[in-house]
Amino acid sequence: SAVISQKPSRDICQRGTSLTIQCQVDSQVTMMFWYRQQPGQSLTLIATANQGSEATYESGFVIDKFPISRPNLTFSTLTVSNMSPEDSSIYLCSAKQGANTGELFFGEGSRLTVL
Amino acid sequence: KQEVTQIPAALSVPEGENLVLNCSFTDSAIYNLQWFRQDPGKGLTSLLLIQSSQREQTSGRLNASLDKSSGRSTLYIAASQPGDSATYLCAVNDYKLSFGAGTTVTVRA
Description:
Chain A is globular, with a radius of gyration of 13 Å. In chain A, a hairpin with a 5-residue loop joins strand 7 and strand 8. Chain A is mainly beta. Helix content of chain A is 0%, strand content 48%. Chain A has no helices and eleven strands. In chain A, the strands form two sheets. In chain A, strands 2, 4, 5, 6, 9, 10 and 11 form a seven-stranded mixed β-sheet that branches. Chain A has a four-stranded antiparallel β-sheet with strand order 1-3-8-7, with no helix packed on it. Chain A has strands at residues 4-7, 10-13, 19-25, 31-37, 43-49, 56-57, 68-69, 75-80, 89-96, 104-106, 110-114. Chain B has strands spanning 4-7, 10-14, 19-25, 32-38, 44-51, 56-59, 62-67, 72-77, 86-93, 97-99, 103-108. In chain B, strands 2, 4, 5, 9, 10 and 11 form a six-stranded mixed β-sheet that branches. Chain A binds chain B through residues 1, 4, 6, 33, 41-43, 45, 90, 92, 94, 100-101, 103-109, 111, and chain B through 31-32, 34, 36, 41-46, 49, 51, 89, 91, 93, 95-97, 99-102.
């Protein structure tokens, strides 16, 4: 299994600012993902973080709003840019080892509140 | 597009009772299905992973079954305890993971 650490665990942000969330995995993983969980909702995939190249974004999510980096096989960042109250959510980093049939693991999440 | 449904949305049982949580999905061409537990304000903890070729998986008091042809999975939790109170999510992997909305379980002492 993989242990995933995220920081910050929570933050309160002002409208119009940007925040970067860091995700560190304790072992090399093939795939890393970023999810959003809005209050009372299930998880929505934002993007797949690709090592050394641009992330693959899901419909409704764009790079200008959610730039993602993945410089190596154990680390990724998600930036939430120009935040508005609608961005208040839990952002979750996840990772998968091995093939696409492998088990998915999650970090503890980063709870963002935008005022 | 894969649609994942979990019924019921919420469940309250007395301690000791067995729990039955249901998950259905619309496209049976899946790699696997995974059950997670989420405590309030926390991340997801993986409970069981069932590959598409498997019928069931067991871990302690937890047993998950998979009927791919009918698009259904069931999570059984035996002899529930107050510590089992959480939201349980199923996720279907057909290259991308699609999550259900979850079943929120309350086990009353």
